[in-house]
Amino acid sequence: MRTGITKTLTVIAAAAALMAGTATESGAEVRHGPCGTDGRQPRDRVCLMAEDPRGPLIFMHIETRKGHDWAWADAMVSDDGHLWMETRHNGKTTRKFRKRARNDGASGQTRLSTPALYDGPGYQARACADGPHGRQKACTSWH
Predict the structure, then answer these.
(1) pTM of the model
(2) Confidence band of 105 (pLDDT split at 50, 70, 90)
(3) Which among 36-40, 126-130, 134-138 has the top mean pLDDT?
(4) CB atoms < 10 A from the CB of 137, how many?
(5) Pick from 88, 84, 86: nearest CA to 97
(6) Count of domains in the chain?
(7) What is the domain extent for residue 9?
(8) In the sheet where 123-130 sits, what is the strand order?
(9) Domain CATH number, residue 123
């Protein structure tokens, strides 16, 4: 009887993991998609999110400025975690605007944001965050 219950729970856990999202480099299940009403900002043309149930919640905002896309990020990051933007251009990925959430001892999480970076023709951008010591890394999809 116990073996049957264990097998059933294993199957349910595997199905839930498949439905939750795609795996990141750290192996955590991360949900990706549009921001929804809670994450959108008034000037957003596009808003993408990534959420690790055990770690960061990231929003990447795409605004049109002077005819081109610009991307910026905000996130709830665990104390001692990081938020950054990445750009991809001509096959090269570059990390920009890396910020660290200081340990304030109160809530265990800090809201961080980055400046905007160019996301126009030939460029792609995504927002990433992690927890302390690089754990629970999550990134939005590339835009």
Answers:
(1) 0.74
(2) low
(3) 126-130
(4) 21
(5) 84
(6) 1
(7) 2-139
(8) 92-100, 82-89, 123-130, 138-139
(9) 2.60.40
